[in-house]
Amino acid sequence: MRLSRRTASLSLAVALVMTLAYEAVPHARVPAGEQTAAEPFGAACRVRVTGSRVTAYCHNPYPVVDRVSLHVECARWWDIDTDSSPVEAWPALTVRLTGRCWKEVDEAWISHQRGS
Questions:
Q1: Can you tell me whether residue 63 is helix, strand or coil?
Q2: Fewer CB under 10 Å: which end of the chain, C or N?
Q3: What pTM does this model have?
Q4: What is the Cα 61 distance to its own chain's centre?
């Protein structure tokens, strides 16, 4: 079966209209009363690895306490990975966290938890 130019053009036009019509359909909206404003949270952290030592500085610019922990994963299978105890970064304060491996550091990161 061979399509004529007119049939092909018509098929293309219908497909285009259907696509545009789908985009024009209104999406479900949540009523304004049910929305909760997300309170800004989370200290900004800089992590530096120097040889086998890790140092992190976390500054909390928000009014909510952020409990930060340093996690260090060592490169060698026999080297012990560490997770620091949570340290409370109070509003407008900077905290320092340190960790180390016996040999090389594979990865280091900070986790955040809302304080009380």
A1: coil
A2: N
A3: 0.66
A4: 18
